[in-house]
Amino acid sequence: MIDISKNLVYTPLVKNTFTTSKFSEYHVKVSSIRIAGKNVPLNKTMLKTKQGVGGTRISTTTPFTILHTTIYDAVKTAFINALSKNVTVVEPPTKQFGLCFSSKNVRNTNVGPDVPVIDIVFHKKSAFWRIYGSNSVVQVNKDAICLAFEGQDQTRAPSIDIGGYQLEENLLIFDLVEEKIGFSSSLKLQQTSCSEYEKTS
């Protein structure tokens, strides 16, 4: 079996000055977001942490990634523009998600629905975490797929709160000695899973 840990993308952990413990929460620097290879126009000040507000946190207790409304709106627009022309946007059947589309013309791949890939770009352009359909969208009923991100106006919280759904079947290694974190993309690319990786660790 392939040792996935040798092919991770590493980015430094960022200390959140709003907490007393150095790494009581895990924060990373996100410099940009790309969808289908194109940069999403973002207010870059939202990506910076100042007095505990803004920036990006990794949260296994948050079900779906939460984006500040201004970031979410930009991501939503870019995702719609990158969708195949034969995919129809539909009224969300649930209030939880703000963008849904018909699953009729969306084919399935080994990494989930064939939708535009989302790249979370860290401290430099070559260090990015690619999110495929299995982690970027969720099937909410037999006819509709929704972008699995939520938009909220966080006032005392990170601008990006990376949630558990986006982390499923992705390997993360927290290296607190070197103060960095390593990300894989979906383990389904290697035809393996977290459970299989645990057996060989």
Automatic annotation (TrEMBL):
Molecular function as annotated in GO: aspartic-type endopeptidase activity
Name of the featured protein: Peptidase A1 domain-containing protein
SUPFAM superfamilies linked to this entry: Acid proteases (SSF50630)
PROSITE patterns assigned: PEPTIDASE_A1
Gene3D superfamilies documented for this protein: Acid Proteases
Keywords tagged on the record: Secreted, Signal
Compartments where found: Secreted, Extracellular space
A Gene Ontology cellular-component term: extracellular region
The family this protein is said to belong to: Belongs to the peptidase A1 family.
Xref: InterPro entries: Aspartic_peptidase_A1, PEPTIDASE_A1, Peptidase_aspartic_dom_sf, TAXi_C
Source organism of the structure: Solanum lycopersicum
Residue ranges of every copy of the Peptidase A1 domain listed in the record: 1-184
GO biological process: proteolysis
